[in-house]
Write a structure and sequence with these properties.
By secondary structure, this protein is of the alpha/beta class. The protein is built from 28 helices and 29 strands.
């Protein structure tokens, strides 16, 4: 165990050395490692595997912090916790990184060949591929690093092949020529989810195809592949033309005019060009009308030999040339501005192209049905629950999943083709030596690799040893919880559900906690181009990891995006310092009493009133925080702990302890609150817990506090009265700008003798905490003339202002403040009277305005009363 000076605590908390020391200690002691033979109840989570190319960003930081809070809480609750880490091979992203490295050497991957290129990628992975996991450790993540996995390690590669072959054998995987999203830059197919649509300012070109037909298009270059013009069957303008043929401009190829109910009569002229090989709607329309498919593009987005004299041109250069020729030949009617959504590759931002290509697909609907049913039956629960609706909508409309990618880095598809083209494809768990159909030994493996998400979909069980029947698989599957962002419900959550039920017969996780996005303080998405990115590593260096983690937890309200600023993190750095300084005071107060104690805090000497109050408050806090952790209400847990420690413990109990305290209670409360804080702030709590000389090796292995032992309702109510009185006096001092150092006379008017007696009993404490020179407690009515007044539950506080303030100046100030407050109320009322604001603003903003109006009115009434009393 690291040496800890248990006699003194440094005046200033320096987080970095503390963080390094305890993380190394936890790892050395094996606290993160799950025991597959343990009889403790299992709790398993798999980390959403970050890309091997990645570095820590705010999304990772939030996701990993929330997972770590859950893991640390569950360990303290006695669970055998397995948090399984690893990385994703990220096919397209990783290949792009290594290709850029090669480009610096003046080489292409084709110069190396597939085998040498793959070797180069593995070398890159060994050198840089664990960087993000190292960065995650900075966050304090308590993953079981001994079980770290990679989506292309031997075990997972075996699982991928087993899954592919099984699905193929059950005719759930097939190969077909189909229209897919294609990235000309990456030269690979993309799934629908890998295409990011961006609204852009474009143009609509109106092209005359005949004397009676003008079509409008956003992509005039694709007309070279047109095989029909379509009109709506109910459009009276064109009904007589259906079935006729026209000559395609420039190409001079005859194409038919067809009628179809799917054509939008309102778009353009109501007549649309049909290019089955280059438009998804046209592909479906072409299939139904048995139209030919003419591909006019090459894989890199240039025009092929089917593009006539435009062959070799880049697609956008071709667009300019074809528009120019259409205009010269009198076919271009007009051009209009047109905003429309344009698909981009999620990796390189290149405009994608619908492209006719031979690809591998998974039949999704048969897999989606049981995955939806499992959620409907409650076998998997979404938190917040509304995200299950998003899941259902996508699953109900799911399309077959294109799983082949035309790159080299990834799981190469386990399919082989015989030299004899008449032989069917060979799909096998083992590399075949010869064709099982004709015996030919000349076989060629399919060059494509599988979509990265195919291997990721197997992650909850492949990482536990599947397809082998491992001890871990039996012990920890299904996993208990998945924590992830809403942006990958379709990419990942849905696919894991489908694959888990297919291969394991059970859901992959019982609960899915969906967290929101981290945005900047204005609610804008963070991006380098905007210059509003906050680097997690930088803020951890600047403010400490615990402060950063507490910030993320405190802002992680379910269903609401996080608005983050460095100022917020700085505020919680101050909270960490408060914890340190308060603990330092407590340790100095405890002196030799530091260390394990056999007696209960209720032991001798008898507990004082303030001890009973803090124990009662702590008991109530424990119940609430326990529930908040259990329900993944991280923000609620953080706020409860902040309020208790800063206010109840520091502002009140430590002050009370200067008058009266039972030292074992002080020590007990500090120890318990450190336990409650530990899941969110692991480093500072471990350091302080060790200095209390507590039994056990680590706070990580301590039991989570249990509530129900200390209930003192009567005593607690008495202290709450005392707190309210002191707060009321402090409020009057502040609002009337009375010198903070001046001792002042106070009159307390209680509503009854019982309360009067309580306040009289606490008079010395009230005098000390509120800087009161003389305190008069009465049950009689008190005149407020010349007095500052504040009301509470069953009492009124009066402070004679004579000699404390300049009455004339104070009357002027109050009149001015009242004027400002009235203007503020009017402004808020005007805003709330506008139907546009009330109907269009987010509900929480409207609620904030109404709450603000209420608070301003209360303040206004108070100032008006004070001014009246000073008259």
């Amino acid at each position: 165990m690291p040496e800890v000076d248990q006699t003194t605590l440094p005046k200033v908390y320096e987080p970095h050395e503390v963080e390094k020391k305890w993380y190394a200690f936890w790892q050395k002691k094996g606290y993160f490692h799950a025991d597959a033979s343990s009889k403790s109840p299992p709790f398993c989570m798999v980390i959403p595997p970050p890309n091997v190319t990645g570095s820590l960003h705010m999304g990772h930081a939030l996701n990993s912090t929330l997972q770590d809070i859950v893991c640390r809480y569950k360990r303290m609750k006695g669970f055998n916790v397995l948090w399984l880490p690893g990385t994703d091979h990220a096919g397209i992203a990783t290949q792009n990184v290594v290709e850029r490295e090669l480009a610096k050497e003046g080489k292409r991957r084709q110069d190396l060949g597939r085998e040498k290129f793959i070797e180069r990628v593995w070398l890159w992975k060994q050198k840089y591929g664990r960087e993000i996991l190292t960065q995650l450790k900075r966050l304090g993540t308590s993953c079981d690093w001994e079980r770290e996995r990679f989506t292309m390690d031997l075990g997972l590669s075996k699982a991928v092949r087993e899954a592919f072959v099984t699905l193929y054998e059950e005719k759930l995987i097939y190969r077909d020529k189909y229209l897919i999203n294609w990235c000309p830059r990456c030269r690979t197919a993309l799934s629908d989810l890998e295409v990011e649509h961006q609204e852009m300012e474009g143009q609509l070109w109106y092209i005359r195809y005949s004397s009676e037909i003008v079509v409008a298009t956003t992509r005039p270059e694709t007309m070279l592949g047109d095989t029909a013009v379509a009109v709506n069957t109910s459009d009276e303008r064109y009904q007589k033309l259906i079935g006729q043929k026209i000559l395609l401009p420039i190409v001079n190829r005859e194409i038919p005019i067809i009628g179809d109910h799917r054509v939008d009569r309102e778009f353009g002229t109501g007549a649309v060009k049909v290019t089955p090989a280059h438009d998804f709607n046209d592909f479906a329309l072409g299939n139904d009308h048995k139209l030919p498919r003419i591909n006019i593009f090459t894989e890199d987005g240039h025009m092929n030999e089917g593009a006539l004299h435009f062959k070799g041109l880049d697609r956008f250069e071709c667009r300019k040339k074809i528009v120019q020729e259409l205009e010269e030949k009198g076919f271009l009617e007009k051009i209009e501005k047109h905003r429309h959504n344009v698909g981009h590759c999620y990796r390189c931002r290149t405009v994608v192209e619908p492209y006719l290509s031979l690809q591998w697909f998974v039949k999704a609907k048969p897999l989606a049905a049981p995955a939806m049913e499992a959620v409907k039956k409650g076998k998997t629960r979404f938190i917040p629950e509304n995200w299950q609706n998003t899941y259902f909508v996508w699953m109900e409309n799911i399309k077959d999943w294109c799983i082949s990618r035309q790159i080299w880095w990834g799981h190469q598809i386990p399919a082989w083709y015989c030299e004899n083209e008449k032989c069917p494809v060979i799909v096998s768990r083992e590399d075949p030596k010869q064709c099982p159909h004709c015996g030919n030994t000349k076989l060629e493996q399919d060059p494509d690799v599988l979509d990265t998400w195919f291997s990721s979909a197997l992650w909850p069980f492949s990482t536990l040893g599947w397809p082998e029947k491992s001890v871990e698989l039996k012990k920890f599957y299904p996993t208990a919880l998945l924590v992830t962002g809403f942006d990958i419900i379709f990419f990942w959550v849905a696919r894991m559900m489908m694959m888990g039920l297919k291969f394991m017969g059970e859901v992959p996780f019982k609960e899915v906690n969906i967290h929101a996005l981290v945005r900047d303080i204005q609610g804008q998405k963070m991006s380098k181009s905007k210059g509003n990115v906050i680097d997690p590593l930088t803020v951890m260096d600047q403010f400490g990891t615990d402060a950063f983690r507490f910030t993320l937890a405190s802002l992680a309200a379910q269903g609401r995006d996080i608005k983050l600023s460095e100022k917020t993190i700085e505020g919680y750095r101050n909270f960490a310092n408060k914890i340190w300084n308060a603990s330092r005071f407590a340790l100095m107060n405890l002196g030799e009493k530091v260390g394990p104690v056999d007696e209960s805090p209720l032991g001798e000497p008898p507990l004082g009133l303030y001890d009973r109050w803090i124990l009662h408050t702590l008991d109530y806090l424990t119940v609430q925080v326990d529930r908040a952790y259990q329900e993944y209400r991280f923000d609620e847990a953080a706020h409860l702990l902040y309020d208790f420690f800063w206010h109840d413990f520091c502002d009140w109990y430590l002050e009370f302890s200067k008058t009266e305290s039972h030292q074992p209670v002080l020590r007990f409360v500090l120890e318990e609150v450190l336990k409650l804080l530990h899941p969110i702030m692991p480093f500072i709590t471990e350091e302080l817990w060790q200095r209390l000389k507590t039994e056990g090796e680590s706070l990580m292995t301590a039991s989570f506090p249990k509530a129900g032992h200390y209930r003192f309702e009567k005593e607690s109510a008495e202290v709450e009265h005392l707190k309210e009185v002191v707060t009321a006096i402090r409020t009057i001092r502040s609002e009337n700008r009375i010198n903070p150092g001046a001792a002042i006379p106070v009159v307390l008017s209680a509503s009854g003798k019982g309360l009067s007696a309580i306040l009289q009993n606490h008079s010395k404490v009230i005098e000390r905490l509120a800087r009161v020179s003389t305190l008069k407690v009465t049950t009689e009515k008190v005149s407020s003339k010349g007095m500052a007044h504040e009301s509470g539950a069953g009492f009124d506080v009066f402070i004679p202002l004579e000699g404390l303030i300049d009455f004339e100046n104070e009357r002027k100030r109050l009149a001015k403040e009242i004027g400002k407050l009235k203007q503020e109320v009017n402004a808020i009322q005007n805003r709330l009277a506008q139907s546009n604001f009330v109907n269009n603003a987010p509900p929480e903003i409207v609620a904030q305005e109404r709450e603000k109006e209420s608070l301003v009115r209360v303040k206004l009434a108070k100032f008006e009363e004070t001014l009246k009393n000073l008259a």
